[in-house]
Design a protein that fits this description.
The protein is of the alpha+beta class. It folds into 2 domains: 164 residues, Beta-Lactamase (2-Layer Sandwich); 112 residues, 2-Layer Sandwich (Beta-Lactamase), CATH 3.30.450.20. Helices cover 38% and strands 25% of the residues.
Amino acid sequence: MPTPYLTDPSRLAAIAATELVDTPAEECFDRYTRLAKDLLNAEMAIVSLVMDDRQFYKSAIGLMEPLATERGSPISCSLCKIGVERRKTLAIRDGPNDPAFCDHPAIRDLEIDSYLGIPIFDENDHALGTLCVLNLEPREWSDKDIENLSVLAGAVRNEILLRKLSLQQHYAQKEHELLASIMDTSVAAIVVLDTKGKIVFSNQAAERVLGLKSSALEGRTYDDPEWQSTTVDGEPLQDEDQPFSIVLSSGKPIHDIRHAIVWPDGTRRVISVSGAPLRNATGEIANLVFLVDDITTTFEANRNFEMVAAQFRGTFRISPNLRF
């Protein structure tokens, strides 16, 4: 029966994160099983990944059929699971005559007489599986044998860690490309600033709203003299009322803060700004992201409507004889 450690979700997730289970044989792992077999003068060598219900052989050399073709076995037939459960080296010198192991299916049915396995741990100390050597005859394992196999197990561990790092970089690049695509095709202007107020990213829509090319925007600050910030009524906008300053000082998101900007060519635009802080792993604000909408047309239309309405109301007040 699988033990709590074998079924530990974090350990199983660590195995899944390697993306090695049920993958084809690879030379980068096969060379270590060949080295282990030759260096220890063993009949078989395996790099195993031990799940809760089965073990998978990422690499195996000298293994008997049908295990060689199946590249794995049920967990009940696994000697590797014992080393994983114990989280330490497992050495069996004469299995059929060892009371602790003589009834184990691998020894009783597969006729494995001797076994030496070293657990392989990931960067978070999860035991993923083993590098092991096996024989169909009894074998006295020396301290030198254990040392040599431990060195090779460390090399297998490094190979797995390199594989995981490569996968993380691959997925990070894909996420970056997806995010860049979303931002570039977004109809909303997106601007990212650092904590000094410098623009570190702007999408294509920001060019239309802020009146400068992205290449000209990035590196400028939110209060750059290239554009002037005012209230919607044309009064100078105080720095503490700037969306950047509000988010940075409060550490909280903002929504629909409205003010006006004057482009370098003198064009005046009314904008609606929503934003939020982006925090790093320690919880500190690393960047600030803002969505900027050009609401000039709507704002001017509403203001014109209010002016007409005011005039209309005034007409009624100054025309007491008006009848319907």
